Amino acid sequence: MAAEVKLTFKDFKSDQEVRWCAGCGDHAILNSVQKAMAEMGIPKEKFAVIAGIGCSSRFPYYMNTYGFHTIHGRGATIASGVKVANPDLSVWVINGDGDGLAIGGNHFIHLNRRNINLNLLLFNNEIYGLTKGQYSPTTKEGTKTKTSPYGTIEQPFNPGELVLGAQGKYFARTIDVNMKLTQEILINAQKHKGTSVVEILQNCVIFSNGVHGFYTDKENKLDRQIVLHHGEKMIFGKNNDKGLVLDGLKLKVVTLGENGITENDILTHDAHEETPFLHWMLIAMKGPDFPIALGVIREVRTTTYEQKMEDQIAEVKAKSPIKNMTDLLHSGSTWTV
Amino acid sequence: MTNKIDKVIELDHVVIRFSGDSGDGMQLTGTLFSDTSAFMGNGISTFPDYPAEIRAPQGTVGGVSGFQVHFGHDINTPGDYADVLVAMNPAALKANAKWTKLGGSIILDKDAFTAKNLEKAGYKTDDPIKEDNLGGFNIISAPISSMTQETLKDTGMDNKTILRSKNMFALGMCYYLFNRELTFTEKFIETKFKKVPAVIEANKKVLKAGYNYGYNVQELTPYKVAAEEISKGTYRNINGNTATAWGLVAASEKSSLPLFCGSYPITPATDILHELAKLKNFGVKTFQAEDEIGGVTSAIGASFAGNLAVTTTSGPGLALKGEAIGLAVITELPLVIVNVQRGGPSTGLPTKTEQSDLLQALYGRNGESPVAVIAASTPSNCFHYAFQAGKIALEHMTPVVLLTDGFLANGTQPWKIPNMEDYPEIKAPIAKEGTENYMPYLRNEENLVREWAIPGTPGLEHRIGGLEKMDKTGAVSYVPENHQVMTDLREEKVARIIADVPDLEIIGEDEGDLLVVGWGGTYGHLLTAAHDMQKEGKSISFVHFNYIKPLPANTKDVFKKFKKILVAELNNGQFVNYLRSMFPEFTYLQYNKVMGLPFTSIELMDNFNKILEEK
Fold this sequence. Notes:
Strand order of the largest sheet of chain A: 2-1-3-4-6-5-11-7
Number of strands of chain A: 12
Structural class of chain A: alpha/beta
CATH topology of the domain at 9-211 in chain A: Rossmann fold
Strand content of chain B: 15-25%
Oligomer: heterodimer
């Protein structure tokens, strides 16, 4: 790797015209990714951006890196193959909620279980955009869409819960419009060794416009979001006076200064804790009773899949007397005529 | 060891079928017999025939496991019918008597022929010989279980453990019958059980006891079986799945590219994944995916990243992989898809053989989606064709489907170990760092192959994908004329692989009354039938296809010199219909069988003779 790599976000822009709708949240995410990558100190040729099918999956075409626009739902497995085959690459998977959690749902959980060192960005707009407005696995129950004209009758997935259920080690959440937070998370995700899932709440201006509006509403967003940082108190709010505490086995929002609550009573975020229970509660928080949790919620360090594979290969290579094809062909029972 | 050989039957070749309950160790017994025979200079060919169930109900016909060995001189198939059947219980007899030659010998474990076992096997009387009309066979009813118990009575082993060795008794009897040395098997036992000396002793004792029993009973006449005329060299036994795995590793070595295999377990292909998983000393990476689609797509990812990428499967798995193979077609990435065919449709007959995935391999994808298709034809040449699959995939930047089948996969034969220096280097068209204005779909004019820029190479960053792309630049394109151009280019690129395809070899005269045409795993049976008829002076020739797409360049010239062309295959006529579409100027006869079983040479000869007689 080069000693020092100085790149700017322009280095990551491809010559292709960006074709998302005006006002689509993907534009902001593209900018965040390009800016974050320029900051990572990694040569451009080491990036591989892999996508499935969907609006978000056009992403690789707009990145001046190695890129692969694959087939519906399979971004995660194709990226797994890329990373395992060539661990030196920084591999990024772009998934939508339909692509990643419906047709690709099986691969999503197994990727987390294996803990392959790659970064998966899950653009969650709670709708199928490219096929023009059908409900997805993250659409809230009761939502009217083209395939649910009377409201959906399905429970939605919460992607972070799937990550935890699949023994995932890393989960972060951000919002398309919060480019500063997104960049911060992407840089952190890149550094994390293992599968890093970053859910990006993304707005589809055409089919689910305002779906995250409750949390992004300019007036109230500070009261409705909490940005978690490892080692810091779980404090939020316009006036920085709200916090999270444990009440029995549940989380509770409290106000500093009320009922004798002081900063000491507020929970401190520990993203590195291996037991998932508190992370689970944080991931599951939703309005109006709770703020939505943003930031790096879970970041547990352990050996990656491809590292274990490389170690095994090195060990077997060192031990095996069979060094090449000729040795192999003559191994075991043979006889000479 | 001395035999009291006062009379000996001399034979060119012999078929022996070991059969018993699926827990009786028949696969091992058969393997040991065939290894010993190969070691002693016989040609061999084997065919395991086992139930799909891991543990089918004991004693039932459904739970019978068989292993057939054909050994002697000029061996091309595991044989049609057995000269000797070993049946360890009534169910084995019930299932296999019909595969024994009239007049052949049947060795029974008479201790297993209890009323309960007879009933489980579906016999209605206590005399299965009479009931199944087996009077025409030489029945040798030996107390195999009780003799095994007697042999090991002083060892202190429990009865269940003792009876596990009864297969060794049967094997010992067969070794006497065919004058085999025990040393090879004794060595095997010593290695396999080296941690439990008591088991080594017990098995060796029982093996010897079986041999001596054969010597002592007058019913057994020993046979002398002809040795193979074999060329000098070092040999080993190999089955099709191992040969396939090794051929892929050889392609990795000769291309200097790491081998990646993304797969999902499926019968009868899984052994290839098992074998590759062992070969980490070659840097082989095996990725057991969560499903068939994950298997092929992880392989496509590895291919994009610059590895020799492989996925292994059987028919139903190939169906699941279809969409992804299309992605490899349109992105023009190298990919080897090994399909070990089995009986279909759906789950079909997982442990049985068939050739009914040919059209799926050729056409089973959406869109105009050409891939190269090649087929192995013997267990050992799976090595060569797996190597070729890797070579074609890498040098022509295309998916290649390698077809084998359950018969080749599990069948074994002695194999003269090739010299790796005889295998060519594989030169993948990897784009070099410093290439000016790299365009992913710029082609070599001669073979239309694009250059492969491996991620990590500075300056060659590019995007590929499943959308139609502009000629040369690879940018997404919906231009109608461009789609036509790219469709034609992809087809023509595969067609130009023909430069690497050897001509068909005609076995027999290059003109005549009847040309028998085969492909894939039926080679041995067709060859035997053709040879035998040629010896009888019949005007019959035989060609066998290993390259299906593209077809060998001389195909048409070969066909036109025969009055009749007959295509024999284990399906309802897939290759014959492909040939009809490629060379409609000829009239094709066909012989088909879809029973989950290989051809028998006898049925083939009957059919060919009939066709020769028809004017």
